[in-house]
Amino acid sequence: MPSSPPPPPTSSSAATGGDSLRNSCHDFARSLARLPATIMDGFSRSMAARRRRRPREIHPPPFPPLPPPLVPEELVFFTEFERCYGGHHPFFYGCRLAEALGIARREGKLVFVYLHDGGGGGGGDDQPYYTEQFCRRTLCSDVVVEFLDANFVSWGGVAGRGEAAGLVASLQPGSFPFCAVISPVSDEAIAVLQRIEGPVSPSELVEILQRTIDEQRAASGQSWPDELAAAVRASRAEEEERRRSALRLRQEQDAAYLESLRKDQEKERSRKSVQEGLANAKPKATTGLHPRYPGQAASKTAQTRPPAQSGTAPSHRTEAKTKIMIRFPNGERKQQAFHHTDTIREIYRYVDSLGIPDIGSYQLVRSYPRKTYSRQQLGMTLQDAGFHPSVTLYIEQLQ
C-alpha cells in the first residue's frame, strides 16, 4: 500500500477517463461467458503460473502476495482489502466463485464481482490512483455497502492470482477498477449482465446496479434460449425444495427449543417446591407437635404453600422471541429463536453445538452498521445489543 495517493491525473487523462466512464455506465450487454474448468473444478498449476505483464510501476501494488500458510487462497482478497481499507465494506464471501454462484442461485440474487488490480493492469499510470479512490470512496461508502449487502452476493478477487486470473481471462476487462454483474446459468457458464470499467462515484454505481436489476427483471418475461430456460426452471425447483427443507428445519428447531425451555421451567418449579417443603418441615421437627387428625396437616400445608403457578407463566417468556439468522463463511445459514433477555453467550453456545467443520476460532459480527460481538460481550442481553426482534449475524474467523 502506498503511504500517500499519487497526484491527481492531468486534464487530458481525466478527459479520457471521463469518456471511458460514460461509455461504461451506458454499456449494458447480456452475454453468455463460459468459465474455465479451473474455476469450477479447482485452479490448475498452469493457470496459477500465469501472470499478466506489468509495465513500469509508479507505485507498489496495494495487495502484496502473502505466503500460502498464512491465509487461505479464498480469504486473500477479503483479508487484504480489510487490511488496506478498513472493516467497513460490502460483505465479500470468502469462498470459491462456484460456491458464490450457488449461494446466489439459492437466494435468487445476482452476483457482484469486483476484480482488484492496483497496478500493471493495462490501464495506464493513473490506474493505481483510480483504484485507490474507487475502493475508499465508492466501495466503502455507506450507500454502496447497504445496497450491495441487501441485493447482491458480492465476491472479490485479486487479478493475477487464484480464480480471479481465470475470470480475467474470460471477461477480458479493458481497465481497472473493474466490476461486473453476473448470473449463474449452468455449471460451466454465466450470464454477464453488466460491466463497469473505470472509477465511478457511489451514486453512479448504485444507479447502474439498480438499472441492471430492473432490466434483468423486465427481461425475465421474454423467451430465453432452451439451455438458459431449463437451467432457470431447475434452479427454481431446487430453490423451492430448499425453502421447504429450511422451513421444516426452523420449525423443528423452534419446537425443540420451546420443549427444552418448558422442561427447564418445570425442573425449576420442582426444585423450588422441594425447597419450600423442606423449609416448612423444619418447624414441625423442632416443636414436636402432631396433628390431632389428618386433615389438620393438609390445611396448614395449603396455607403455607404459595399458590401454584398457572400455565400462562411460561408463555410470557415465549412471547418476546428474538429471531437470530447466522451466516457462515461457506454460505450456510442457520436461524434460531432466543428470548430477548438471553445473553450473547447463548448464541455462541448454539453455534458451537452445531458442529460446523473448519470454523475454528471465530467472533460474531453485525454487517451494517458493522459491529463486533466478541467473547468480551458474552454477558450482554440480546435486547441491550439491539437484536430484538430479529438480526442477521456473520461468523468471522480469527487468525
What does this structure look like?
Residues 317-395 form the UBX domain. It holds the Pfam family FAF1. GO terms for molecular function: ubiquitin binding. Residues 1-10 have a biased composition (Pro residues). Residues 1-29, 42-61, 285-304 and 306-317 have low confidence and may be disordered. The strands form two sheets. The protein has a five-stranded mixed β-sheet with strand order 1-5-4-2-3, sandwiched between helices. The chain has three domains: 13-219, Glutaredoxin; 226-263; 318-397, Phosphatidylinositol 3-kinase Catalytic Subunit, Chain A, domain 1 (Ubiquitin-like (UB roll)). With 399 residues, the chain is of the alpha+beta class. It has 13 helices and ten strands. It has helices at residues 11-25, 37-41, 45-48, 76-85, 97-107, 127-139, 142-151, 163-171, 202-219, 226-287, 294-304, 313-319, 344-354; strands at 31-34, 110-116, 152-158, 178-184, 189-197, 321-327, 333-339, 362-366, 371-373, 390-397. The protein is elongated.
What's the short story on this structure?
This protein has about 400 residues and is an alpha+beta fold. Helices cover about 45% and strands about 15% of the residues.
Topology (SSEs and partners):
Elements (H helix, E strand, L loop, with lengths): L10 H15 L5 E4 L2 H5 L3 H4 L27 H10 L11 H11 L2 E7 L10 H13 L2 H10 E7 L4 H9 L6 E7 L4 E9 L4 H18 L6 H62 L6 H11 L8 H7 L1 E7 L5 E7 L4 H11 L7 E5 L4 E3 L16 E8 L2
Parallel strand pairs: 2-3, 6-10
Antiparallel strand pairs: 1-5, 2-4, 4-5, 6-7, 8-9, 8-10
Protein traits:
47% helix; five-stranded mixed beta sheet; Glutaredoxin; single chain; 10 strands; 399 residues; 3 domains; alpha+beta; Ubiquitin-like (UB roll)
